[in-house]
C-alpha cells in the first residue's frame, strides 16, 4: 500500500483519483519489503494475536459467535473502504500513533449501525438483542439471521475492490468512490437476502422466515469459499495470473468468472464429494483465508528473491499448511478448552479464523500501517 501521508494530511482529499489498480493486488517488485521480513511480520503478531483473542472469546464461546461475529462481519466492508479506497483517511489527519486507532473507532461505530440495519432487515430493530447472546423470545437475535447479508456485502465489496480493480469507480475522488462501492455491495446484499436466501425463524423470535432457494448456511459457506479464492489470487499471489492480461475487459471478466465460479465449484466438491457440512466448510475456508492474510499481508515479502513461479508455489503450500495447523489448533481449543458442541465448535472455528484472526491482521497492516513497528522511512512501503 502506498504512503498515507504525513500526520495532519488527508491524502484522498488532496488526490482527484486513486491509482489505476489497488496496490495490494499488483505484483511485488523483486526484493521489495523483504529486508525486514519475517521479523516485521512476527512483531506484528504481538498486536494481531491479542486483538484476535478478544474478538474470538471476548463474549465467551457461544456469546462471541452470536454477538461479535455479526458485528465484525458487518464492519468488514467499512474496513475495505477505509483501507483500500480512503487509504486510511480520516486517520491520516492525526499523528501516526493515533491514526489506526481513530479509524478503528470509526469502524466500530459503523459496524453497530450496519448490524442494526441488518437486524431491521431480518425482522425489526431490536437494540437489546444486538449485544445479548440469548435475548429470549420476542427478540431478533443477530446470529445467524443477519449473517447472509453481512457476508454478501463484504464479499461483493472485495470483489469490486480487488477482483474488479474498483473499475470504473477508481476514476472518482476516493471519498466518493469508496461509499459508492459499499452502497453497491449493500444493494446487492439486500436484494440477494430478500430474493434468494432461505431463513428459518428461531422458535419464539421475531426473525422473519424466508423461503428462498438457498439456505443461509449454504450461501455463507459459498461466500467464504469465494473469499478464499479472492485471498489466494489477489493477496497471496498479488493478482496473478489475471495481472498478466493486458486488456482490462478480458482481465476483469476472467477474474470475476474464475473467483466466483471457483467458490461455487469448491462448495459442490466439499459438500457433495467430501460430505462436509456448510458449517465445517466455512470453518476450513476461514482458516485458509486467515493463513493467506498472515502470509501474504502480515509477512509480505518474507520469501525474499525467489523466482515468481517458485514463490507462488511456496506460498500456496505454506498457506495450505498454516490453514491445516490453524484448523487443528482452533478445533482443539473449541473441543477441549471451550467444551462446545460439534456444530457450535465449527461456528466458533470459522469465527475465530475469519472474523478474529483475519480481521485483526487487516486492521494491523492495512488500517494501523503496522504501527508501532515499522521504521518511519519504511512506512511508505507495503
Automatic annotation (TrEMBL):
<protein>
    <submittedName>
        <fullName>Uncharacterized protein</fullName>
    </submittedName>
</protein>
<feature type="transmembrane region" description="Helical">
    <location>
        <begin position="249"/>
        <end position="269"/>
    </location>
</feature>
<feature type="transmembrane region" description="Helical">
    <location>
        <begin position="39"/>
        <end position="61"/>
    </location>
</feature>
<feature type="transmembrane region" description="Helical">
    <location>
        <begin position="315"/>
        <end position="333"/>
    </location>
</feature>
<feature type="transmembrane region" description="Helical">
    <location>
        <begin position="142"/>
        <end position="163"/>
    </location>
</feature>
<keyword id="KW-1133">Transmembrane helix</keyword>
<feature type="compositionally biased region" description="Polar residues">
    <location>
        <begin position="26"/>
        <end position="36"/>
    </location>
</feature>
<keyword id="KW-0812">Transmembrane</keyword>
<keyword id="KW-0472">Membrane</keyword>
<feature type="transmembrane region" description="Helical">
    <location>
        <begin position="216"/>
        <end position="237"/>
    </location>
</feature>
<feature type="transmembrane region" description="Helical">
    <location>
        <begin position="175"/>
        <end position="196"/>
    </location>
</feature>
<feature type="region of interest" description="Disordered">
    <location>
        <begin position="1"/>
        <end position="36"/>
    </location>
</feature>
<feature type="transmembrane region" description="Helical">
    <location>
        <begin position="67"/>
        <end position="86"/>
    </location>
</feature>
<feature type="transmembrane region" description="Helical">
    <location>
        <begin position="348"/>
        <end position="367"/>
    </location>
</feature>
<feature type="transmembrane region" description="Helical">
    <location>
        <begin position="281"/>
        <end position="303"/>
    </location>
</feature>
<feature type="transmembrane region" description="Helical">
    <location>
        <begin position="98"/>
        <end position="122"/>
    </location>
</feature>
